[in-house]
Amino acid sequence: MGVFGGIFIRNRKKFMLLFMIFAVCLSGGCGQAQRHEESETERDFGSGEEIEAAKGNLQAYFLTIHSGEELALMREWYDWDSVQSITVYFSKDLREWREEDLQALTKHHGSVAVESDAGTFPARALTYLTGATEVYLFANSDVSDVTGTLPEGAGFPKQIKAVTLYGYREGKYEALLRLLQDSGVETITVKPDTKAEETQRFWLDDAAGIDTLKELVLEDISIQVRGETAIDGSGLERIEGLIDKDTDLCFVENLTHLEEITSRILDVRELSPLLQREGLALYLEFYKKTAGFEEEDYGAGNYTVCDDFNKMVSLSGMGQENRYLGIYQRRKDKDCVAECFIIDRFSEASDQEEGMNLTDTEAWIRVADGETVYELRPEEGYGFCAGIRNRMTFEDINFDGVKDIVLEAGSYGTQMLTYKYGWIWEQASGRYAFSPTFAGIGDPAIDVKHQLVRSSWRNWAASHSWAIYRYVDGQFVMQGRLTEEVLFTEDIPPELEVPEGAEVWRWQEEIMEDGEVAEVINSYAVEVEGEETIYPERYESYYEEDSYWGEGG
Predict the structure, then answer these.
(1) DSSP annotation of 260
(2) Phi and psi (nearest 5°) for 62?
(3) Which of these, 116, 344, 466, 473, has the minimum number of CB atoms within 10 Å of its CB?
(4) Secondary structure of 272-304 in the HEC alphabet?
């Protein structure tokens, strides 16, 4: 997929025509009423021939379907290849679905959100999702679980690799998790019931039997284990969830394939099993309790301070002078171990305020490569903003075959551009060195296939830009920039001879040489209400999957 992620209708008349068609479809009056004269609606929005020609050609990214009859109607009018996501309602007896309509669900290749007005739905409904790639079970109608069993010889569709469960409470979805035992699901995401007053618990035992499961993401849900032997043999590689006073960390030892843990530490406790597992990648966020929705009250009593853990990682002075370990990370690449420490420092609030005020956030990385140990810090003048996940990774950003160290540095400005700091491996010194030019790239995306770094940003509501960087002589240098924007009247070139009231879009390519603009290529599209818009010849190349401006496929 390229730089333009979607199709949208800029022409008002075309939009109104499609809206009218949809309204007619829902009322069941497609082509049934005989007309003796041209109606006002027809004069405004199009003839019956135009409406008939729209059948099967309407574009939609997502649709909501309440019955088999609705599905049949939508399949008649919409280009089904354009539909990426559907929400489907099932009753517990499927009385609103004929067999032929259920079979039509197999034609959808995208994500499916399953809803139920009855709070449950039959397991056999899932067997018709044989074209879906992802399945979401929503909690808007309090879907409690599936009922019944799968038909003989049928199973959960093997091509579905990701399942998301909404509105989770302890014990909920047990029947569904049993259905997944013989599935091909690799990722399960569990979201808690927002109405629950207490932290919910998820038992790893319930998911351990899913042989293909690689990643379990528990959002604000604690990790629990009933029995150690129950999780033996699990292929889980990554787990995300809360660790509280009741979490049995034995799962670290029993999950032999485990590669990474992401967790918020809710209570002061012994965390040595996490550190003692050699090669285990860690992302630990030490919990900050808050006194209210907006007003945060920090202090030694409200911050999770695990003194034994701080000693194990040789981090002294925590809790003193209102300094607290906010995030700890550990990553390993070959014989090199990198530990990232993100420290929050607070000051006493003024007489008019309560609690503590965040003064600053400090981040540094400690590298242990054999017997060599040293620290990496951003160069002076480069700030650090906590509040996002601030991930540290090993990845090759200059494409020399050796992985470098990258740390998310925060989001800035009204457009909330995310920046990252990169420390590049230097063969001559045998150490990592900070790259100022990488730190200046907004929203950097590493394109390994084409060995370049891509960047994108929003200038304003109707203007977006994309840029491409290459690593040249120790620096990341911009090779080109593309800007898509609607032009104000005074910016429209006179040679275009634009009709009054028309809208002009420009795509401007700037080709760079030695960091300077060497060539500018402008392409235009003039949009006139009621007329088909002709896009420039170069337009298609901007968003083709493997184009220069695309995402590299």
Answers:
(1) E
(2) -145, 150
(3) 473
(4) HHHHHCCCCEEEEEECECCCCCCCCCCCCCCEC
Please name the residue ranges forming H helices in 170-220: 174-179
Residues 234-261: b if buried by 16+ CB within 10 A, e if exposed: bebebbbbbbbeebbbebbebbeebeeb
| CA atoms of 131 and 160, how far apart (whole Å) | 8
CB 90 within 8 A of CB 71: no
**Using CA atoms, how far apart are residues 195 and 96, in angstroms rounded to an integer?**
30
* Tens digit of each residue's pLDDT (9 = 90 or more) over 137-155: 875 545 567 888 888 888 8
- Mean pLDDT calculated for residue range 198-223: 94
Nearest to 222 by CA among 200, 198, 192: 200
- For residues 227 and 234, give the distance between their C-alpha atoms in angstroms, rounded to a whole number: 13
Paired sense of beta strands 475-486 and 111-115, if any = unpaired
Task: Give SS3 for 69.
Answer: helix
Q: Yes or no: say if 231 and 209 are a contact pair by the CB < 8 Å rule.
A: no
Query: Residue written as tokens 């027809």?
Result: 42
Is the model's pLDDT at 452 over the cut of 70?
A: yes
Q: Could you tell me the pTM of the whole model? A: 0.84
Residue 22 three-state SS? helix
Q: How many CA atoms lie within 13 A of 308 on its CB side?
A: 9
Cα–Cα distance between 507 and 463 in angstroms, integer?
A: 10
Identity of residue 323: R
Taking phi first (over 0 means left), then psi (-120 to 50 degrees means alpha), and beta for anything else, what does residue 346 get?
beta
Which residues, in sequence order, are CB contacts of 147 under 8 Å at separation 6+? Answer: 92, 120, 121, 122, 123, 175
| CA distance linking residue 502 with residue 494, whole number of Å | 13
Q: What is the pLDDT of residues 82-138, one digit of tens each?
A: 899 999 999 889 999 999 999 999 999 999 999 887 778 899 999 999 999 899 987
11 alpha carbon, distance to own chain's centre: 30
Residue 489 pLDDT > 60:
yes
Q: Mean pLDDT of all residues in the chain? A: 84
Q: Where are the alpha helices (DSSP H) in 366-494?
A: 436-439
Angle ∠(448,452,458) on CA atoms, nearest 5: 115
Long-range Cβ contact pairs of 251-255 (< 8 A, separation 24 or more): 251/204, 251/223, 251/225, 252/277, 252/280, 253/228, 253/277, 254/225, 254/228, 254/229, 255/231
Q: What is the DSSP string of 27-51?
A: HT-TTTS--SS--HHHHHH--HHHH
Do 301 and 290 touch, CB atoms closer than 8 A? no
pLDDT score at 488: 92
Residue type, 51: I
Contact 438, 397 (CB under 8 A): yes
Return the higher-pLDDT residue of 37 and 183.
183
What pLDDT, on the 0 to 100 scale, is given for residue 404? 98
Closest-CA residue to 523 (of 502, 509, 511, 510): 509
